[in-house]
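re: ur question from yesterday

yeah so i grabbed the chain u mentioned. its 727 aa long if i counted rite. heres the sequnce exactly as i have it in my notes:
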Amino acid sequence: MPEVPAVSGTPGLTPPQLPASTEAVREVFSEGGSLARVLKGYEPREGQRRMAEAVASVVDAGGTLLAEAGTGTGKTLAYLIPSILSGHRVLVSTGTKNLQEQIFFKDLPALQDALGVSFTATLMKGRANYLCLHRWELYRDGVEGSTSAAGRLVDTSDRVLLPIIGAWVKNTDTGDRAELRDLPEDLPLWSDIAAEADTCLGADCRRYNDCFVTRMRQRAAESDVVIVNHHLLCADASVRQSAYGEVIPFCPTLVIDEAHQLEDVATQYFGRSLSAHRIEDLVRDGGRLLPASAPQQTEAMARALARVADRSRMFFSGLALPFDSRSGDPEQRRGAARAPHGGRATPESRFRYTAESLADHFEEGMALAGALEGLEATLALAQSPAASATESDRGPTAADAIDANEAVVALQRRAGELRNDLCFLLRATDPDFVYYIETRGRGRAANADRPAGAGSAGREATRSFLRASPIDVSRIVRDVLFERVRAIVLTSATLAVDGSFEYVKGRLGIRRAEELRVASEFDYATQALLYLPRRLPPPKAPAFAEAAAREITELVKRSRGRAFVLFTSYAVLRAVQRVVEMALPYPMLVQGAAPRTELIERFRSTPNAVLLATSSFWQGVDVVGEALSCVIIDKLPFASPGDPVTAARIDAINAAGGDAFADYQVPLAILALQQGLGRLIRHRTDRGVLAVLDPRLRTRGYGRRFLASLPPAPVTHDIEAVGRFFV
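ran it thru and got these structure tokens back, copy pasting raw so excuse formatting
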């Protein structure tokens, strides 16, 4: 893991048992206190001090704290300082890698100096961010031929990159992919050498003691502060349920920052998933084992692998994969989640299925399950006698045989896991899950936001998944995350709805909690203007996209570019793009044209730029200063009622006698709107215009709930007032 020299001390050293009491925390945050003496430009903030005192109380006494802290509060220091002073080990989980790295590389070193307390810290990312030494050696040794260790064709670029990566491997202490800054994010060969859980040999690997993931886990186990993200937190908890591959050490205090994202991430990781991609990787890795197998086993393994590959192709190619291109509008006809064939593909499309609707493919699916079971049996027989040699007898040949057998065991386990997942997904009978088919793909746009370590070249342009997601994650989150720890802090700039935490408590299974709301430190009365146009048609009207494009054009002219335009659907984004690109002289950046991080950097560095984007840019993006002076949102960000998970949750709430629209859809959209508008004012010197083009804020009864959630800025319906604001 990356080590920060300023965050020093003997590994595992527990900080002195300083009282994390109200008085101690108050001194640190006071005028002339520890922070003011060490941090240049630090100004005491009442809201920050109140939050820190609340965190200190729950960390000392145990329990749960829900803390909504408006932008500018300084909530990161408000939870880090009392956690460190308490002497208890703390696990901090963030919604984004950017915040992870800010805490580790910026905040913790500063606190080392400010607090005068020695503590150690580790930054942990998901496995796929780290190089696997075993897979790297196989790749490096096999690149002399025409294929990689995973069976992918090795192209010229791979051969050029080989010495660059080889030199890095010799010098890196962490194996973190992020250190390869000069290489493209979407690096095809990384999928061949990453430390994927599926291919991990665990303690049986001969590189186990040198393994970057093992060393990361060891460092974390000895650290006082461990920084993860929600994806790793939930993935690790899911793995812990199966008692295989857990990497995050136990910490008695858990802080969940950007907690509004936790339900979505938990939904992703506490379900089941299967794709042709996973099976192809299994077959490719099995093919790599053939040369090391005993001659009598080679033919049987080759036949078993070929049968799995054939059955997989038949099953996945036979699945009907329609696209649902409807927008996220609850006032549209609900209908079924399945859209007609031939709809316009989006980077991610999903439709719901049942055992009955999948019946035409059940036989092919079970044939694939049978092929996987046959492969398991074949692999069970593919043991080499050399693997049982004693230590004294183990020469190079025996060592190679041992490696091969370890790989066979891992492959057999993977085949069994794939078969179990497939059978669960085919039967589709568990009422606690919603079952759906998801497609991702269509060129660069679809790959723009893919995680580090995910290969692209050489993969199919469109990938399909069978998925099962839990309809309600509240019990799972409570059981596997919250009830394991002594103290929990959940914080975000957006947690409360209608001034209450009841919504988030219900969604995350929180029974009892201390509650705190801290208003933003920003002066919205002078820093911002809220523009709500009167003359736009309803969002479902055919004329909405054209009218929105005209309104956006006029707004961006007055802001002189420097704008985020955030959409709830790709269809409206594309329609608006065609108009504004011709009407405006400013540099236009569009989601999908480049990876997300690259687009953000271009926006920051390009004067008067305009960014058109959808959901992934609504949160976790910080642009400080005049580069971003206007945020425009086209529609209220309701989750699509045609989305399988959303539809299943709506059905479940209504079936239980609730009002899904008022109790689920509106609160979820309010939090999303707050996040989108929160992109604008990130600092006390920022100024700008917030614009929401959806007339339902004024024409629908629920609009009052949205209006009450907006920043306390002056409101105007006059576009000329926008122009005057920027003069």
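noticed a couple things. The chain has a mean pLDDT of 85. also The chain is about 45% helix and 10% strand.
anyway ttyl
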